Fold each of these.
Amino acid sequence: MTSTLSIHNWFKKKQAEKEVLGRERLDIPGGLWVKCYKCGQALFSKDLESNLKVCPKCNYHFKLTSTERIAQLADEKSFKEINANIRSKDFLGFNDAKPYAKRIKDSITKAKLNDAIVTGLGKICDLPCALGIMDFSFMGGSMGSVVGEKVTRLIEEAIVKKCPVIIFSASGGARMQEGIMSLMQMAKTSAALGRLRENSLPFISVLTDPTTGGTTASFAMLGDINLAEPGALICFAGPRVIEQTIRQKLPPGFQRAEYLLDHGMIDCVINRKDLKETLVKILRWFNNVQR
Ligand SMILES: [Zn+2]
């Protein structure tokens, strides 16, 4: 009781501090509590994690890292990463706020990843599949030459192994620092999916928040089945850009997963807690068709 009270008092104090400073985030040491970005509810980190990082109050789906996604989906120890060590190059000597070469180096250190996607072969409920998981924490999940190459190699590996491909997208679009090299990945990944189709192997695309730009305009929307997590922003140009261009207010929920479902752009919006079961159903269905 004492501890509940003291936590309560502590929260009141924090709230007062927040009001004084006008800050938006709950800045709590140790990361024990997280504030829901959508409803503002303070959530105990461990509870949030055991709820697959979904807010129990408003169903907001927090972003997952590639490691978290693999842990939630793949059978234990079944995931074997491929092409883990491909790193990007600064083809153009690109320099914005800082040189691209430095940006790559810093992102590798910060995200503890070599680029914005992790690919590999694994099993979900004993069903083999080729898995690609984009990671927004690496330069906003932008698709440069490495993401395109890894997606393509993953698809080629799936053709060799005769297994379905599942890719989770989370992307700010093409990586502008690589110019044309990133744009050509759209054609390359789409062509690879064409070859997957020729081999009668399925591609399941899972769109998570946010999936935008060149990623949406290429492989992410080319699934035989396109699934999305609730509330995910899925678009080519973002709502702010469109609003500024057409100078009109956009309808509520525009470009969110549910809106896309209503307009026939995707097949299903799936809660994270049902995702694994749904993927298993789909994989089994394709397995039966192929036999
Ligand atoms: Zn919430």
Amino acid sequence: MSTLDNKIQSVKSRLKKEFLADTRPWVVTFSGGKDSTTVLQLVIEMLLDLNEEQKKYKKIYIVTSDTGVEMPIIEDYTTDKLSQLQGFIKNSDLNISVNLLKPKVTESFWTLLLGKGYPSPNQTFRWCTDRMKIKPATNFLKSLTEKNESILMLLGVRSDESQARAESIAKRDENHRGFSKHGEIPNAFVFSPVKDWTNADVWTYLSKNPAPWGIHNDMMKLYDKGSGEADCNIALNPEAASCGKTRFGCWVCTVVSKDKSMANMLRNKEDKWMLPLNNFRNKLEEYRYDHSKRQPRRRNGQKSVGPFLLSVRKELLKELLSIEQELIALGKMGSKKLISDEEIAQIQKEWLHDGDFFETAITLAQSVDRLIDYESVKSFDETERTYIDSICQENKIPTKLIEDLMQKEHSYRHQIKRTKIFTEMENLVENFANGIVNEI
Ligand code: SF4
């Protein structure tokens, strides 16, 4: 028996022993990457060796994170894998559920960036990971620990991944069963069955052993296309590499100065269609550091560079929707969307607070045939809008100027000192007279 065969047998018998040792449910985190796939496959192979009664001894939860801004080809791959898994679980009558964890619509990337104007995340203001990955995972795990006395999380982390990973594994305070406590979730324990496996062990195991739910060729092809080391193994994994250093992060990620995995993929002829996404991501990064794209105050009124201007957010949403149309025309989107209907509706709610009285987000979406289920809360209904238009026409004043002036007034609504509002309104009028587009 080869050393790897020994390792495989040893992990499987350990898994079997732990599986039958208590009733606490297992949570297997699955990113679709090689390490989490290895752990999941070993767990399922172990289960298939059990008798029918033992197989149902405890529930296993497979959990995967979906930020809503995953790279489209990764999203396709993950969707495929999860559906293969679901089919296999159903046919094999296993006590396993597959769970896709998503951020709340109020905390999604687009709601925060386009809706509230958060500047694109960077190393010093990385607002995304917590909301898009950590919170959904924590909420899910907490709900499990509330229903059960305790849970065991099985992670695909390995000492061989990096020096930092080796150190963090070595620092773990493990109990007599080799489990360590999850730092954030009370009553959750962590177990890494392949922590001593090398990279070569993982690849050899996967290439010689197709998963019970399907072959690994698609995963290997993805790894071939990208470069880098770690999977974005999500917040479910308390020892995950920080996002941004990961192999396949979000396509919008501006925490890394260059999206290497996207750049590598763009070298392949068949992946060139993702270029508009990469350009858009670069624009998000560029705008973040361009103070003319941001309000001169924070939302709390403090004088400092603030959220993206509403006009910039409108421009970005328009461009995002147009890229989506381009990709749909190329047949690259399937049933996916770059931004969901719920996010657009939420963005509109946020924009209303910022003085977008005419529901521009909804109008932009409708202009590309996105039918958003949105209960209009326009400050002005169609009759009022027509009335405003007619007064403007009568007085030869562009409606857009009136909209801008109302927005400006609205932006001062919480401020005690309003002395500057007059100058700013004068500037708006002057700019209009000079044909300059106002940035609000
Ligand atoms: S990959 Fe980048 S954008 Fe996505 S959560 Fe991590 S840091 Fe944020």
